[in-house]
Write a structure and sequence with these properties.
Elements: E1 26-31, H1 35-46, H2 48-55, E2 59-65, E3 82-83, H3 86-90, E4 97-100, H4 106-117, E5 121-124, H5 127-144, E6 148-149, H6 160-167, E7 173-179, H7 182-194, H8 198-207, H9 216-219, H10 222-236, E8 246-247, H11 255-263, E9 266-277, E10 280-291, E11 303-310, E12 314-321, H12 325-345, E13 373-383, H13 388-398, E14 403-408, E15 416-423, E16 426-427, H14 428-440, E17 450-454
Parallel strand pairs: 1-2, 1-4, 2-3, 4-5, 5-6, 8-10, 10-17
Antiparallel strand pairs: 7-9, 7-11, 9-10, 11-12, 13-15, 13-16, 13-17, 14-15
Helix pairs in contact: 1-12, 4-5, 5-10, 7-8, 13-14
This protein binds NADPH dihydro-nicotinamide-adenine-dinucleotide phosphate and L-homoserine.
NADPH dihydro-nicotinamide-adenine-dinucleotide phosphate binds next to helix 1.
Length: about 450
Amino acid sequence: MNIESIRPFAASRPRSNDAINVKTQIRIGLVGFGTVGSGAAKILFDNADLIARRVGVPLSLTRIVDIDVTADRGVVLPEGVLSPDLDGLMNDPSIDIVIELVGGYDFAKHVVLEAIGKGKHVVTANKALLAVHGEEVFAAANRAGVDVGFEASVGGGIPILRSLTEGLVANHCLSIVGIMNGTSNYILTQMKREGREFQDALAQAQAAGYAEADPTFDIEGIDTAHKLAIMVSLAYGSPVNVKDVYTEGIQRLSALDVRYASELGMTVKLLGVAKFRDGEIEARVHPTMIDKTAPLAQVHGVYNAIHVVGDAVGDVMFYGQGAGSLPTGSAVVSDVVDIARNVRKRACGRVPPTSFQMDCRVPIRIRPMEELTTRYYLRCMVPDQPGVLSKIAGILGNHSISIASVLQQGRQEGQTVPVVIMTHRASEHAVQTALQDVNRLSSLVSEPITLIRVEDQES
Ligand code: NDP
Ligand code: HSE
């Protein structure tokens, strides 16, 4: 539907309460014209009129900086917009907002801090930068009186951060649990649907263009940990050191465990889990078994979903494309619009980037993993002979770990067979210590026991 043809843009005509606003356009500079940069640029050009009506003045993408100015990015740019000249962009006093979409740490941090230092507002999708250097960036922005938008850093196109900082601010956040990495979710979906081993599914994700050439951050859970750290700091008003987020990826998961999960009526997902308990926060990322009927189990391929529970609102689910040029570009442009509205109304800093006012944040302890309790799936490769299972059960019992069920399919006397043990809720410390005891006994297990945590109503 082309509603522009029905309602022509008339926002440049000032209304009475806009009289004090002198800006007739907001000018934007973009650094990094790759996947997300080209998506954001396309939206700014294609939806310019729609966006202008929402802001009140046009947004003008006047400078784009990239080291490669020849590649075809699928966006037709006006003459002279694209160049490798970062200084030209930074020293252009007419640029109000700088969008950083290069990624990585050092250069991106330099771009963001230089822009802030020059009094420009900043938008970024760089979760790695924010999870590690967010405090420095936010403090610099606070001193300079500029806004920092980073909606695209978590959940791609899903407006989760604005919901945490605005829509859900009436609530104490009880928990945030979600699938926050599209690449891992695609791999797990392929392992489940096609019975593929991890390496096969990863190769498939790379061939399909989902996983990056270096997928380390995605498959090792680091990307999810970055996103969880950002959400936790916004939801609880506490700075989070990403090193305190327990992080385990999907790279050691086997097709056998994915199949057992199905047989147990469960699905394996890489979850980011944050919960507020007894005045402390638990924050962890790991492959997790969830009931196959749970809403998060219905999230397939590169989609993301985040389940937030607030004390007043109850359950809220966010679902959508967690990556990609246009979905992520959509979130980037939403920040640009937000800031442009603030610029017009001279309301910058209205919503602090930390969600809580900077001087009202209180550090909350992140509980170490060994202090947490949950349920466990344990797969033991054992010789199929009498007494083995009772010895393992005995060791678990010695550590106060109660067994909920045991699954062994088929018999191959004298050979190694998988035995799956589901536990009741147990302490992580106790489980890790018990597994060390069992793994030490080569007469009991032929390889280290595989552990997958279970998340359910009980956890
Ligand atoms: P890309 O690699 O596609 O784009 C980055 C662009 O920056 C490339 O064109 C690159 O050029 C350019 N670049 C690299 N170094 C410089 C430099 N020194 N000066 C100017 N330009 C430079 O990355 P994405 O678009 O995928 O990601 C951008 C950011 O968005 C990252 O922080 C990422 O984590 C985040 N993000 C990405 C999502 C996605 O779906 N891709 C989703 C959510 C967040 P060249 O290619 O020649 O190196
Ligand atoms: N690599 C990320 C993913 C991109 O696969 O979800 C979005 O942050």
